[in-house]
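Quick start: read one record
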Amino acid sequence: MITSKLPNNTTTIFTTMSLMAAKYNAINLSQGFPNFNCDPKLLVLVSKAMEEGHNQYAPMPGDILLRERISQKIETLHGAFYNPETQITITAGATQAIFTAIAATIHKGDEVILFTPAYDCYAPSVTLFGGKVVPVQLQPPSYSPDWMTVRNSVSEKTKMIIINSPHNPSGMLFSENDMLQLQEIAEKNNLLVLSDEVYEHIIFEDATHQSAARFSALAKRTFITASFGKTFHATGWKMGYCAAPENLMAEFRKVHQYNVFSVNNPIQKALATYLKDASHYNGLGAFYQQKRDYLIALLKGSRFKLQPSKGTYFQLLDYTEITQEADVSFAERLTKEYGVATIPTSVFNTENKDFKQLRVCFAKTEETLEKAAEILKSI
C-alpha cells in the first residue's frame, strides 16, 4: 500500500467534460484546443524533418536553432536578450515547463502565492514537492489582481508567486502597472516568479502583452513558460519552452534532464524554420479576435451575460439570468440535455467559489460556433 501524495486530486475537469461531451455527442467547447488543423506549411516542415533523418534524440536543452529563434522573438517583441545556449530550454509543452520550474525550486514548507481561478496544474505541482499553496482570489467581472491582498499574503515562508497572463479562464490581461507592482513585491521579498505566458500572442484590441521579460528586475527572478501548441494550433504536439536567467535555468535543466531529457526532434526542426516568418505568430491576435467577436455576435439576444475576453481563446458566460444552480450541475445539464459541453469555473477558484460562470473555448470553426450558439440562445 502507498500513501497518496495528492490524496485530494481526481481526474481533471477537462478530461471529465470532454468524456461527457463524447458520451452525449455534445459540441465540445470545454477543453482548450482548436478543432481545425494547423498550417499545412508547418506539417510539410515536420514531414521533411522526419524524412531528412531527424528522428533521434534532440540535444537535452533543445535544438539550438529553435532556441536562437525564440531568443530573437523575445528580443524583438520585448527588448530583452535571453542567451539561447544557457537561458532557454525546449519542453514537452508548457505544463512540463511549469512542473519542472516548481520541482527545481520548491522545498517542503515553502509557500507559493497563486491567483485563482488558476490553471489546475499549479497547485498539485506545489503540493507534490511539499509546498503550501496560498491562493489570492480574483473577483469578477474584471478579475484584476488586488496587490494589497498579495502583499498581505507574503510571509517569511513565501518562495514564489505564479502568474498567468493572458489569463485562463477569465481572459484578463496583466497591465504594465500590475507587472510593476509584482516586480516591487518580488524584489522586496526576494521571491521567485513563475510567469505562465502560453497565450502570449492571443491578445485583442491591439493591446500589448506585458511579458515578465519586459521588466529587467523582474526578469532576473522569473521563469517564463510558453506553448507552441497554443500558438500554432497543435496542442497534441506538446511542445513549449522555458526562458529564465542562467542561474535559474541551470537548476531547471537539472530536473528537465531526468524528467523528459529532450523532446520531439523533428517538430523542433520544423518550428525553427517556421519561426523565421514572424507573421505566423504576429497575426494570431487578429485571427482569434475575429472568432471571439463572431461568437459574441452570435450570442447577442441570449440570456447569457458576458464581458468580452481581452486575450486567450476563452470566453466567460454569466448565466445568473437563467438559473441559480451550481455551475458544475449546470455544465453537466447543458452537456446531457442540450448538447453543448463547457467548463464550470468554480473548480479553479479558492474553495470552489461559484460565480455562476462557464468557460467556453472559441478556437473552433465558424460552423461549430454557429451550432453551439444556436443551442445556447435557446436556453
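Residues 60 and 262 are 5 Å apart (CA to CA).
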